[in-house]
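User: Thanks for the earlier help. One more: Sigma-70 region 2. Can you show the sequence and predicted structure together?

Assistant: Of course, both are below.
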Amino acid sequence: MSTEEDHHDLQWERLRNGDKQALFALYNSNYPHLLRFGLKLCGNDELVKDCITQLFLQLWSKQAQLKPVINVPAYLFTALKRQLLDQLAYQSRMHDAISRMTGKEAENELSYEEIIIRVQQDDEIKQRLHEAMKSLTPRQTELVRLKFFEGLSYEEIAAQTSQTVKTAYNTIYDAIRTLRKKLS
């Protein structure tokens, strides 16, 4: 076993025992290799970087349940591959779902974006929207503000609020559904 493998094993054991410095050491020593590996699987630079970060956040959050690992880099490569494949499959499902939206649903979505944009111009709509917004959770209100008032993308919202793109999309989708019911 090489010195580097010994070093990874030691860091892994320290991570399992709650040592945050070991997590950073594993991240720093494996990041370039994981990035190269991820880019071979998928050309999306941002997605690969996000998945690597997500992988290490998950390792930290599940440190107490981690098992001893014989080959830490191989474990990390496998975990990253699984994470990337899950994200790519999710993105594909989301793309298909959006593509299948009926014209009526797409028009409704647009009309709500227009309502939000025109809020400043129409007092009656402003009042109704204000009342409808009260029925949203604080999280939904925050994400609707970021999406429609600040014009952020789902990816930017996810990064700013430390959640996944899927969660941001679903939260905003639920908020729009609630607003639709209240405003109809």
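User: Great, one quick takeaway?

Assistant: Residues 76 and 161 are 26 Å apart (CA to CA).
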